[in-house]
Write a structure and sequence with these properties.
Elements lengths: L2 E3 L6 H15 L6 H6 L2 H14 L3 E6 L5 E9 L11 E8 L8 H15 L5 E6 L5 H6 L3 E10 L2 E10 L8
Parallel strand pairs: 4-5
Antiparallel strand pairs: 1-2, 2-3, 3-4, 5-7, 6-7
Helix pairs in contact: 1-3
Length: 174
């Protein structure tokens, strides 16, 4: 059984472990191994402690019965007002550990954050993903539409980010 809940400050390290681990597995064929190996749980933990304590974004975690955090989602107001100002909300990050993938956890995390977006009167949202990421089909299944692409420098090379937009999120899970 998976519980979706808001994090507390003590969750920061467990979120950071998921963040680093999922990056290292999901992007191993997309980003240099040097970059992925340089990712640090301690640095990530500091960022998550700040996000949680400052309440600077909406965050949910997926917790297993054994109290292991197996995924998380974060988002808030759209940060890309230059290209996609019509989308009011943005998913900043969504990650689920590989061993827990394809069990509906991503959908549960999306439902939780979308409910908050609707409460904030955000009727649409977008997210940016690294092109070639295997989660692209998940976003398409949720009726995400490819909006645009832009270059993104990471790990000593330039990759492509893809924007997916979701209109009328009030009806996303009907």
């Amino acid at each position: 059984m998976i519980i979706i809940r808001k994090p507390v400050l003590n969750d920061a390290e467990r979120i950071a472990k998921v963040h680093v681990s999922t990056w290292q597995s999901a992007y191993k064929d997309l980003v240099s191994s040097e970059y992925l190996n340089s990712l640090s749980v301690s640095k990530s933990k500091e960022k998550w402690e700040k996000n949680i304590s400052e309440n600077s974004s909406i965050i949910y975690v997926a917790e297993s019965q054994g109290q292991q955090i197996v995924g998380f989602i974060s988002g808030g107001k759209n940060r890309d007002l230059d290209d996609h100002s019509e989308y009011k909300a943005e998913i900043y990050a969504v990650y689920v550990l590989a061993d827990w993938a394809r069990m509906g956890i991503g959908t549960k995390l999306f439902k939780a954050i979308v409910a908050d977006f609707i409460e904030l009167n955000y009727n649409s949202m977008l997210l940016w993903m690294l092109k070639g990421n295997s989660t692209e089909q998940f976003y398409q299944k949720l009726s995400g539409v490819c909006l645009s692409e832009k270059p993104y420098k990471i790990g000593g090379s330039t990759k492509t980010l893809v924007a997916y937009g979701f209109d009328n999120i009030d009806n996303l899970f009907d």
